[in-house]
Amino acid sequence: MSVAETDKPKxxxxxxxxxxxxxxxxxxxxxxxxxxxxxxxLTLRMTSNPSTAEDLTQEVFIHLFNxxxxxxxxxxxxxxxxxxxxxxxxxxxxxxxxxSELLTTExxxxxxxxxxTENQNKMPVVDRIALEKAIxxxxxxxxxxxxxxxxEGYEHEEIGRMLGTSTGTSKxxxxxxxxxxxDLLRRQAALN
Length: 192
Prior knowledge:
Structural class: mainly alpha
Radius of gyration: 19 Å
Number of domains: 2
Oligomer: single chain
Distance between the termini: 53 Å
Strand content: under 5%
Helix content: over 70%
CATH topology of the largest domain: Rna Polymerase Sigma Factor, Chain: A
Order of helices and strands: HHHHHHHHHH
CATH superfamily of the largest domain: RNA polymerase sigma factor, region 2, helix turn helix motif
Number of helices: 10
Number of strands: 0
CATH class of the largest domain: Mainly Alpha
């Protein structure tokens, strides 16, 4: 690498996206190398299946390659890619016939948080591992809503739109997910 190359400022994601739109494969490869770990981590968190997460990550980047021209730079590229990834995983869940599980309807439920999980950054590593294991054991529909709401921070209205369900269904699924998580964590604690 020459001195001129090291002095050259690093291109922004927006600049790389614009070059990719023009057919520059090297620019797209750079975007891939910058973001594939983040996309994989998100798909793995949502699916709890490494093989499925790998497949979905590849599909997200194929989709990105085809849709890169629609990125206008109104938001950060990472925000746009995150939304695209979440939507792709949700479509995967819909196609996998998990939708029937998401269509149960119950009234509004109070917000409940499993004690000790309010702030994951302050949780001991062992507790975080137990929580991740318990999340992976949730049924796909519960897991989707839980990850979208409690991990990713989406509101119930947004989740309802993403999943094609009502706000009440999102709240109900989250309530059930939290109850199931509480039970799973108690069982894990009893075994230790």
